Amino acid sequence: MVFPSRPVKLLRESLKMPGYKLYYFDVRGRGELCRLILHCAGVPFEDFRDIDYFKDWPTIKTRMPFGQVPVLEVDGVKMLAQSMTIARYLARRHGLAGQNDWEQSQADMYCDCVYDLHNATVDATWEEDPVKQKDLFNKVNQDTIQPHLEKVEQHLVKNGSGHLVGQGLTWADIAYYAYFTTPIMTRLGGEVLTKAPHLKKLIETVGNNPNIQKYVETRPVTSG
Amino acid sequence: MLIETFYRQIGSEIVTNKSFKFSMPVYKLHYFNNPRRGRAELSRLIFSQAGVQFEDVRFSHSEWPNIKPTTPFSQVPILEVDGQVLAQSNAIARYLARKYGLAGKDEWEQAQTDMYIENIHDLLNAAAVPFMEKDPAKQKELYQKFMTDTIASHVVAVEKQLKKNNTGYLVGKQLTAADLAYYAFFSDFIEVKFGGAFLKDAPLLKSLIDRVKALPNIKKWTEFRDSKYPEEN
Question: For labelling, which of A38, A49, A140, B164 has a CA lying 20 to 30 Å from the CA of B131?
Fold first, then answer.
């Protein structure tokens, strides 16, 4: 009697899990939420980030559906673009999107809010002059972040579970964690969550997730 | 004749509405009255195509200071569903598309539908920059740059995807909210504002938006909308 060898068994196992390859630059930016979701869910993937902007990007860009990254390649054949679409797809496939249609939509809503926050902060994030950067950041904080936090705090308290949606962790919680722990936020945003203690606690909770902690300890240090 | 119409209506509701219940949810979509279409139009198109009743609440900018604090994030559109509230235009559109069979046939097609809707969201954000510019000369320059830089390259990319999919639709073999989103942006906004020259090398995209424009429910909605809410700008 011949038993399947270990390599054959491993191959069979690997065939069941989709092969994910995430294309993005070697920064956190718009790709980090996808990475965090995959690590949190314990799903293996190829974190393809060795893309030199001048040497590699011109060629890689032509292969991407809309000339942009992040892009998720699944099983080497199909490609999905748009950072939030990828994150949502992964969250739904791997149990991090809410328990029913309504919760999923609530999670979508919060993540769309975080997308807007990222858009508002992008100029500050990549500003090289430190004085100008601080000014830009303070303006975004005052005009956009603080008013938003006031609302989020109210909703968090009303939901009552410590999480944004339903009773457990969703990608909405992870999205807020990702946004409020970016390098610029860590450097300039020390006071940002002062009036949002519930959100601050939620962010700490997400940060203490063992899978996320393990990833964060070993991920590359980048400027954005 | 009346009975037949009644049953046909119910029948079409059952066919188009996967989660058909004898009591439909009460929907109220809230948005500004100007811009006439803006971030709410995709959801209105989804409702219309799916044949689902909704209250199309439009308020003036002078009423906004009173309405703003009642919204989840001080923004509109918002959707009330039997009294519960959902914010963010894309989350609303996505929720309705999935509920009423306009989001593809499986998870992957749903993700592709999302992707195209988010493409349009980015294009709307990019269009907002010239839209908000007060200086007419500068606005003209910004719009020109928007057309030659942002729109032209996107049209090339989406034409390629349409060719690859080869069904006449953006996603799979059927109409989805992705097609409605591209119609709303490219036909109902870009074509109206800048003419159709940008489509000269994109026959598949042109054919798609013409097909959506001619769908009976979409045609009915745009005729009703154009007569009830004449364009301000």
Answer: A140
Pick from B91, B98, B111: CB nearest A85: B111
Q: Could B91 and A109 be called an inter-chain contact, meaning their C-beta atoms sit closer than 8 Å? A: yes
CA distance A35 to A99: 22
Catalytic annotation, pick one of A20, A24, A171, A177: A24
Choose the closest CB to A155 out of B72, B112, B154: B72
Concatenate the DSSP letters of all residues of B78-102 into one string: EEEETTEEEESHHHHHHHHHHHTT-
Give tens-digit pLDDT for B105-131: 999 999 999 999 999 999 999 998 998
Report the alpha-carbon distance of residue B39 to residue A156 in Å, rounded: 26
Q: Tens digit of pLDDT for each residue in A155-175? A: 999 999 999 999 999 999 999
Alpha carbon of residue A188 to chain centroid: 20
- Three-class secondary structure of residue A72 per DSSP: strand
ipTM over the 0.85 cut-off: yes
Q: Report residue A8 as tokens.
A: 């054959």
Q: How many CB atoms neighbour CB A4 within 10 A?
A: 10
pTM attached to this predicted model: 0.89
A73 touches chain B (CB under 8 A): no
List the single residue in A with minimal CA-CA distance to B71.
Answer: A151
Closest CA to B102 of B56, B66, B51: B51
Given CB atoms, is B115 within the 8 Å cutoff of chain A?
A: yes
Tokens of B128: 């907002």
> Can you say how many angstroms the Cα of residue B215 is from the centroid of all Cα atoms in its chain?
14
Is A102 at the interface with chain B, CB within 8 A? Answer: yes
Q: Do B157 and A67 touch (CB under 8 A)?
A: yes
The Cα–Cα gap between B112 and B110 comes to 5
CA distance B34 to B18: 33
